[in-house]
Amino acid sequence: MTRRSVTEHYPDTLPELPSRSRGVIGLFEENCTVCMLCARECPDWCIYIDSHKETVPPAAPGGRERSRNVLDRFAIDFALCMYCGICIEVCPFDALFWSPEFEYAETDIRELTHERDTLREWMWTVPEPPPLDEGAEEAKEVAAARKSADKAAQVAEADMLAAHREHPAEETAGTAGRPPRKPDRDAPRNPGPDDAAEAPDQDTRGGAE
Length: 209
What we know:
The strands form two sheets. Strands 2-3-5 form a three-stranded antiparallel sheet. The protein has a two-stranded antiparallel sheet with strand order 1-4. It is of the alpha+beta class. It has seven helices and five strands; from the N terminus they run βαββαββααααα. The longest helix is centred in the last third of the chain and has 27 residues. The C terminus is likely disordered.
């Protein structure tokens, strides 16, 4: 209200958008478990998901095989999307994020259905979340990831110590089979008590005179 209106020369000059602008929806495919919750909750039914099941072998001998869903297709029709953000809010595994990207206009309305490859590219334009307030609790996801990383580091350290105990150091193993080194006759040696007993008496007599 107090500033003079200025026309932005788009597209030569890109606008400075707020960090939480609702542009497009980015997909972090690694977090998607194909639970279909986002597609069921979407009021416009603009999310299309296809998947298939795969059998996972048991992690330990004698265990049971497990089946998991594998994502085949994840597409969003932005001609129908009303940018309500319900799909992002209901996703239990943080696979969908708002991106400030807005340059995705098409000349054909059928081109506005973007597949998972495009959604994944938009994921890299998602800004980092704002820092937490002082004294705030750490996010549960970050705490769980940190706990898993610390546990993996402890297991790796224990395995390294066990391997070190079973196999001695390379220097010890290399010198174990070597014969003892013979002393050098020409090298000077430190005088011992036997050398003092075998010393001539002329120094003692000379000192007495």
